[in-house]
Amino acid sequence: MADGSMLTAYNESFEKYNIEDGHFTVIKQMNKAQKKNVEALGVTLYDLFYVEETLVTNDSTLRIFPDRKDVDKVCLMEGSMPEKSDEIAIDRMYADNNSLKVGDVIASTDHSWRVTGLVALSDYSALFSDNNDSMFDAIKFGVAIVTEKGFAQMDQSKMTWQYAWKYNQSPKNNIEEKEMSDDLMSDINSTIVLDSYTPRYLNQAINFTGEDMGSDRGMMIVLLYMVNFSGLEKGKTGSVRFIVETDEIKK
Questions:
Q1: Origin, by domain of life (predicted)?
Q2: Model pLDDT for residues 170-229, shown as the tens digit of each residue
Q3: Is residue 69 a contact partner of residue 18, using CB atoms and an 8 Å limit?
């Protein structure tokens, strides 16, 4: 029941938090003309710039974004959102794994922040720092939110110029989504050179959690039947066999 509830909340989050259809990075910030040309391809672009800082506090890497209002919105789980340039809200799982809480101070070589809140970023339901990683690491990698003013004080030479997109007309199915994504990548490359390109259906930071919960459900149902099944039939060899009539297990 818990797994089903979490999976429902996960599926509803795509609309609730306006989760991106994909994102790409470029080597230098796009100018207005380049953005206009890309948006003419049938998408709306959103700035998702970030800076990564290595913390002296715990020798981990924190990917820091300015607050999001339009896409990949933030869920505040405890405390409050940062209001001052030296305040920060950090991912809840990362905080738990590093024994951090609201009120603590964290620092890199150049900056220090007071933690005002624990959050979940809708595009990081699993903390993958690199989409090519085989598994996420919520101990040595985390994501965080600061104010616009606080973000402006970050080292611009460390900036990753990332843009999220939403299709103006959503694809009807997975096949159409892949085709639209492939066409969009080709068309964007004719406008500006891409550094990386990650459509949503390939984004592990977004998809891993939902896929993991869905696969766990069938396994847990089998386990519960094994624990509670009362009509066991014992065979000659001493083995135990039973049949469960449920669509979940047949799948």
A1: Bacteria
A2: 999 999 999 999 999 999 999 899 999 999 999 999 998 777 665 566 667 777 777 766
A3: no
Q: Is the pLDDT of residue 245 over 80?
A: no
Q: Is residue 163 within a helix (H) or strand (E), and if so which, with residue range? A: strand 159-167
Distance CA 42, CA 44 (A): 7
Of 153, 152, 154, 128, which Cα lies nearest the Cα of 142?
128
Q: What tokens does 212 get?
A: 């993991």
Position 38, amino acid: V
Integer Cα distance of 24 and 20 in angstroms: 11
pLDDT of residue 242: 47
List Cβ neighbours of 6 (8 Å cut-off, separation of 6 or more): 213
Retrieve residue 206's tokens: 């977004």
CB 241 within 8 A of CB 235: yes
Do 142 and 54 meet the contact criterion of CB atoms below 8 Å apart?
no
Say what the pLDDT of residue 216 is. Answer: 62
Nearest of 20, 26, 64, 68 to residue 44 by alpha carbon: 20
pTM of the model: 0.81
Assess contact for 93 and 101: CB atoms under 8 A.
Answer: no
